[in-house]
Design a protein that fits this description.
By secondary structure, the protein is mostly helical. The protein has 22 helices and no strands.
Length: 441
């Protein structure tokens, strides 16, 4: 059997396992490991599994995952998220979709620090969705919103995918980071407008009535409820952007600040210590779940590389003798299709080495091409049948919420993301104006 056929069989088996309800990490790992063993043998496949697990378990930058998850849990236990949403409800509760808008903005800030759309979505599924639900927002739409808004952090710098893309292609990292600002802000604005429009035409998805009768005195009294969030935000964001510490260090400092605030608010007692211990255990459990999915996604990605499935698809694009725009559209479709199956970093590792030289030969602007591809990976993360972000959010969703509920909530925002992606393709200046006018090499 030729390698391409093996790849097709592997993808079909993966989809079948997922449709049968097999846990995504188990399905990915099983297909990836067996497929790799088919090509390389059992011993090399075992070594690959061990080395990949070791990499994700010891990689310095991945420290942000447990730290940021712990931050979200500490914030929830301290009541910071509840207090912040109560205060925001008094200030913007009379605006349709006000808490959804606040969630989008918070995901933007948090995502830029974590550099991971999956981590951002998981944390805000724990922090924001319960408060949105408490204020009367539909569960599916709330989870769909956090699944989508997490993608903003992969565009606005610092962006993990921009770093990966720069390492693969040698493009200027500074320019790539600046190129993500326009698309990131456009996605933020697009999600806000779309969310408000959705609630306008489907009011049943939001609170039955806006918060009314809130005086300016009550709003001003509510402001101190925001101070813990502002303290953490100022310390972390200010420290990173002024070069005081790195993003990884910011994660540790932010977690420490939240822990100190927790003891300052709740006091040091047996009960508070038990709560902190429980939060840390939950952070370990959630981190293990996220890392297991990432590890098995990497194993599956290696299997796809061995099948030459990605190379075959790229060769098909080249042989078709497409125009620049047709090639870009084909690259986007390929990226989204792969995004249904594997994580963003793996997608870039598979397709960029093949497609980037073709884009250069066709004189396609490298920054424009890079951001379109990065954006397309984020579209793939919420596209059925396999959507890494959706599966990760499902793992932390409240009881009674199934995958179908979350997918149903993401469908509207998926359409919004596709529209914004089309705008980025049609108007390259949204991506290129800032880096070409602000970057000094």
């Amino acid at each position: 059997m030729d390698v391409f056929s093996v790849g097709i069989i592997g993808v079909v088996v993966l989809i079948a396992l997922l449709m049968m309800g097999v846990y995504v990490a188990v399905a990915l790992g099983l297909v990836g490991f067996i497929g790799t063993a088919y090509f390389l043998g059992f011993s090399p496949a075992t070594s690959l599994l061990a080395s990949t697990t070791f990499h994700y378990g010891t990689e310095y930058t991945f420290i942000v995952i447990p730290l940021f998850v712990a931050m979200g849990l500490f914030a929830a236990e301290e009541g910071i998220s509840k207090d912040a949403y109560d205060a925001l409800a008094k200030w913007i509760g009379n605006v349709r979709g006000g808490l959804g808008i606040a969630t989008i903005g918070a995901c933007t800030i948090f995502g830029t620090l974590t550099g991971s759309s999956v981590v951002t979505s998981v944390v805000f599924a724990k922090v924001s969705v319960p408060e949105m639900r408490r204020h009367g927002y539909d569960a599916s739409i709330s989870y769909g919103l956090v699944c989508t808004a997490g993608a903003i952090g992969m565009l606005i710098p610092p962006s993990l995918l921009a770093v990966v893309y720069s390492l693969i292609t040698g493009e200027s990292l500074g320019q790539l980071l600046l190129a993500g600002i326009g698309p990131g802000l456009l996605l933020t604005a697009g999600l806000i407008v779309a969310f408000v429009a959705l609630l306008t035409f489907r009011p049943s998805l939001g609170p039955t009535r806006a918060i009314e009768g809130v005086s300016w005195r009550e709003r001003l009294i509510a402001l101190p409820q925001l101070w813990p969030a502002f303290v953490v935000a100022i310390v972390m964001i200010g420290g990173v952007y002024f070069g005081v510490f790195t993003v990884v260090e910011a994660a540790g400092i932010g977690t420490a600040v939240l822990l100190l605030l927790y003891f300052a608010i709740k006091g040091v007692s047996k009960r508070s210590l038990q709560t902190v211990t429980a939060s840390l255990r939950e952070a370990v459990a959630l981190t293990s779940m996220i890392l297991l999915i990432l590890i098995t996604a990497q194993i599956f990605a290696r299997f796809l590389v061995l099948t030459e499935l990605g190379t075959a698809l790229a060769d098909f694009v080249v042989d078709a003798k497409l125009s620049s725009l047709q090639f870009l559209l084909a690259a986007v479709v390929l990226t989204i299709l792969l995004g249904m199956l594997i994580d963003s970093v793996s997608i870039l590792a598979i397709i960029v080495p093949v497609l980037y030289p073709i884009a250069q030969a066709m004189s396609i602007d490298p920054l424009w091409f890079a951001m379109v591809i990065v954006f397309a990976t984020q579209v793939g993360l919420i596209t059925p049948p396999f959507a890494l972000t959706v599966f990760a959010v499902k793992a932390v969703a409240e009881p009674g919420i199934n995958l179908e509920d979350i997918f149903r909530g993401t469908m509207f925002f998926l359409v919004v993301m596709i529209i914004i992606l089309a705008i980025l393709i049609l108007i390259p200046d949204i991506t290129t104006w800032i880096p070409y006018n602000m970057w000094q090499s």
